[in-house]
Amino acid sequence: MRQMIVAGNWKMNGTIDETESLINDLLAGNSKNDKVKVVVCPPYTALLTASKLLDGSHISLGAQDMSEHEKGAFTGEISPRMLLTVGAGFVILGHSERRQYHAETDKLVNAKVKLALSTGLTPIICVGELLSEREEGLTEVVVGAQVAGTLSGLTAADLKRVVIAYEPVWAIGTGKTATPKMAQEVHAFIREKLAVIDKAAAEVVPILYGGSVKPDNAERLHRQPDIDGSLVGGASLKADDFIAIINAV
Ligand code: PGA
Prior knowledge:
Shape: globular
Number of helices: 12
Bound molecules: 2-phosphoglycolic acid
Strand order of the largest sheet: 1-2-3-4-5-6-7-8
Largest sheet: 8 strands, parallel, barrel
Order of helices and strands: EHEHEHEHHEHHHEHHEHEH
Number of strands: 8
Strand content: 15-25%
Structural class: alpha/beta
CATH class: Alpha Beta
């Protein structure tokens, strides 16, 4: 059976005060449940605060990006080791906002994925098509190329350690969710692509859905056979909503 995961991507939200209050609310309102792994991904500046509050709890910590370099003269960058030593176990890579605003390519994301794995972090690799690409019938072409590109060169053992998030770009922050059927179709397609690389790995890699996941649509999405949880943006900033989504698993 695959691990179900609900991860919160806080994006550029969360001062120290806001982080303390959100984490405390999550810890008070959500208790450990072996059926679902909960991850929160605050901004870099709040990771240490979050890490201290989460220490010994059932909630794991993740970052929203990292450098493809181990260390050195890369002003403004954060290395995977820095994330590990602050208590992060996960790192979101290749989010569409990184691709859109920072010109990240599959090749770059692939380098980050490899470095994350070799450092001991679990990458949550984001893929997803633009609205225009969906309308032109290119969803599988685009998503297939992103899956192949970001996972290029991984061994079967490495592949078993990644998490994939399917996030149709047109559904992110727009309130437009893919229907459970639309999402399931792409998730099944991604699992087929994984099986081409390694059949056993394809069975264990969690594939999360992301894009306007809310308490009222989470259950129907999570019920789909190839949807193994969600990557939640906006709704992860409200403890009650995030907890409701976790409980929907
Ligand atoms: P959203 O963001 O839930 O606000 O649509 C999801 C994401 O970008 O990961």
